[in-house]
Design goal:
Radius of gyration: 25 Å
Keywords: Membrane, Transmembrane, Transmembrane helix
Strand content: under 5%
Number of domains: 1
Oligomer: single chain
Order of helices and strands: HHHH
Organism: Aedes aegypti (Yellowfever mosquito)
Number of strands: 0
Protein name: AAEL001358-PA
């Protein structure tokens, strides 16, 4: 079953949008958050300061690069690093928010329980569903290879050798 060209473009477009926005925001937030110092009171915000920000920023840059390669070459395996890193980050934010709410250390510092909730309710499903659609697209309707220069010889066939005469 061949997919409509417009639908294929539409699905890949969302992947390109996610990759573009993530590629712009990753260095920006990495640079901004790595300069923030942390004290012993900010242990819960350790992920958002110092060395962890730099490590995760580099990991995000690598994942973004692999995502763009995966979309261009239509390889599902190149999408996995971005998806895994997205889910790890989401899990870390949820754990942090749950801790802040349970401990009473300022629920207003949370990501899921303040004004950013409507934004997160849009972004998280958008990214997850777009990645699922890309993976499904690459499974159902893979890109057609146009180079027919490769010839595979049958190794299991009979070995008949004809005599070749050169020059007559």
């Amino acid at each position: 079953m061949k997919m409509d060209k417009f639908l294929r473009f539409f699905i890949k477009f969302h992947g390109y949008c996610i990759c573009t926005v993530s590629s712009i925001l990753t260095p920006l937030f990495t640079a901004l958050m790595s300069t923030v110092g942390h004290t012993r009171y900010d242990l819960i915000d350790l992920r958002f300061t110092g060395i962890p920000v730099l490590i995760l920023g580099i990991a995000w840059m690598i994942a973004n690069s692999l995502l763009i390669i995966g979309i261009v070459k239509e390889r599902k395996t190149f999408l996995y690093p971005f998806c895994v890193l997205f889910l790890i980050e989401l899990f870390m934010v949820v754990l942090r928010d749950m801790y802040l709410v349970i401990s009473g250390d300022g629920w207003y510092k949370t990501a899921f329980f303040n004004v950013t909730l409507p934004l997160l309710l849009f972004i998280v499903p958008y990214v997850v569903l777009s990645m699922m659609a890309l993976m499904r697209l690459f499974d159902v309707d893979p890109i057609q290879k146009t180079d027919d220069n490769f010839v595979r010889f049958d190794r299991d066939g009979p070995e008949e050798v004809d005599r070749v005469t050169i020059g007559g």
